What we know:
mainly alpha
Amino acid sequence: xxxxxxHTVRRLRTAWGSVRHRxxxxxxxxxxxxxxxxxxxxxxxxxxxxIWALAGPALADLFQQAIAKVSGL
Length: 73
């Protein structure tokens, strides 16, 4: 009985070590992904600026027309 308990404890320690190693390696891998998120954020901001620059005057004109119709001018 004691041998089975020791064997079970040894297996649990090995399993816990494996899970711990996997979790720690996943955390280390996420740190390398930060530049990707920065790039996605910068590209999204750049697209917003470009679209706003192209569509801004048309949107402003559309807004002015809508306000004129609502106010009755």
